Amino acid sequence: MNPKKNIALLFLFAVCLISMEAFAQWSSIAPGRLISAEDLVKLIQSDKDKPLMFQVGSHILFLQAHIPGSEYAGAAATEAGLQQLRKRVESLPRNKFIVLYCGCCPWNHCPNVKPADDALHTMGFSNVKALYIADNFGTNWVAKGYPTAKGE
Amino acid sequence: MGVGVYSYRHSQRSQPTSANAKQHRPAPDFTLPLIDGGQLQLSSYRGKVVLLDFWATWCVPCREETPHFVELQQKYGGQGLQIIGVSMDDSTDPVHTFYQQFHMNYPVVMGTADVGAAYGGVLGLPIAFIIDRDGLIYAKHIGATDAAVFEKDITTLLPAR
Q: From B109, B114, B146, B160, which residue has the greatest number of CB atoms within 10 Å?
């Protein structure tokens, strides 16, 4: 085979591998169900109806900093946390606009957002967004100067 | 929506950031409960090089780092290294299990929001601080960090008496 062709194929293979790695976590929550920090900030600072926001990660991290108006709903990586979230939303209309976020870890390693998203969709909620936090809540929210509250 | 343009770097291990710059400020003291009973006061380790690791059992990068910390403690403990884990878990049960599962050979305390805030906010995991023998913060590492980076810091600081 032509050596140049071999190199091109190898390059293509490498690009595919990188792309698969890059989007592995992304693909688990459809891009259409993600919301960026910038868009969420605009939304909560607008006159529009605010979404119901749940932090589904660490309580200690929530106490240090969270999005104003958001509630702590339990670490969704645990069954206890999922139960807490399900109980909180069970009486809500299924078209309620809900935003889930965590920010404990880099996006690909977050153990909480995906289970929370799955749980709400299983319950029939149709208007749920997951806040995309690339690195962690400190870097991608607090350090950006976005609105932040402390405590319960 | 801007989500579609996030770059490839976000899928990778957390890279050192500017926040990892040398600090040289006193490490805030604290007294926190050890997971197996008793209390740990950070300042009682003055004279040692301390690697203070904020972590949690459910944090994947933390799980990856733990075996390296066990190795570093074993390798350099006799020369004055003391690793201290600060768990940001909400309860001790999973920490006990993790401690045994990973054969951790260094003390682990249960963290609080106040201690996190004292260290500038622990708003993502893992975050590790390297503290010199005088109790000054030498470096801060945010996100998963190569063991070689920790080892370099440690071997830089250990010779100082």
A: B109
In angstroms, rounded to a whole number, what is the distance separating the alpha carbons of residues B136 and A143?
Answer: 24
Candidates B7, B9, B10, B119, partner chain A, best to mutate (most A CBs within 10 A): B10
**Residue entry with tokens 């599962």:** B101
Neighbours of B31 (CB within 10 A): 12
Given a contact cutoff of 8 angstroms between Cβ atoms, the answer to whether A69 and A97 are in contact is no
What is the DSSP secondary structure assignment for residue B13, as one 8-state letter? P
- Report the predicted TM-score, pTM, of the whole model to 2 decimal places: 0.81
- B105-146 pLDDT tens trace: 999 999 999 999 999 999 999 999 999 999 999 999 999 899
ipTM score above 0.85: no
Name the one residue in this structure whose structure tokens are 């909480």: A112
Q: Which of B147, B136, B159, B160 is nearest to B22 (CA)?
A: B136
Burial class, A43, CB count within 10 angstroms (exposed 0-12 / middle 13-18 / buried 19+): middle
CB B32 within 8 A of CB B111: yes
Which residue in the block uniquely carries the two structure tokens 């792309």? Answer: A19
Is A135 at the interface with chain B, CB within 8 A?
yes
Beta bridge partners of A128: A98
Q: Is A55 on the interface with B (CB under 8 A)?
A: no
Q: How far apart are CA B149 and CA B146, in angstroms?
A: 5
Nearest-CB residue to A61 (from B2, B13, B88): B88
